[in-house]
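WARN retry 2 of 3 for item q-0093 after timeout on previous attempt; input resubmitted unchanged.
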Amino acid sequence: MTLTLNLFAALLTAFGLSIGLYLVGGRHEEGAFQALASAEAALETVRAPGARESARAEAARWERTLAPIGRVLSRRAGPPVERVLVRATALRIALARRLIPLGLFLLALGAVAGLLRRDRARDLVLYSSVTFSYIGKFLALGAVAFGLFVALCPFAPPLWTLYPASGLAAGGAAVYTGNLPPRL
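OK item q-0093 returned
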């Protein structure tokens, strides 16, 4: 239950940072076109032409879904900037979704590595640390929140930062499960 609430808090944090960064910033014309150029460049790195077209089609679906949010924000920036930001966000979401299986695999791998370490703690070869367990949990949830922020915000860091975030989430999961007490 607590983990579900923490994941929900991570999602709200990522979404709040995305909207907050947009609202706090000044004029977005130049940044919007840079964000779109960055997202288009990331799309061009997809090697398979079929996968690239699939990502474009998925981005078009996300663009239609995000259009009402863009209309609300367009009162602040203007319609052309709104369309560019919605397009950049849709491309980022479509490309980030392609990394979900890798992220889940690394997260499961980290949890299994932590369970192997926990077996050694159960045999009293190693000791468990509740502090390290909490640090691992917050590392994993922080990496998930960062990944959501990168996917949802057009002004976020580049999409390649999702790879280190997935590794950090896996490391956090390993530390979390590896340092749970032997008896819960």
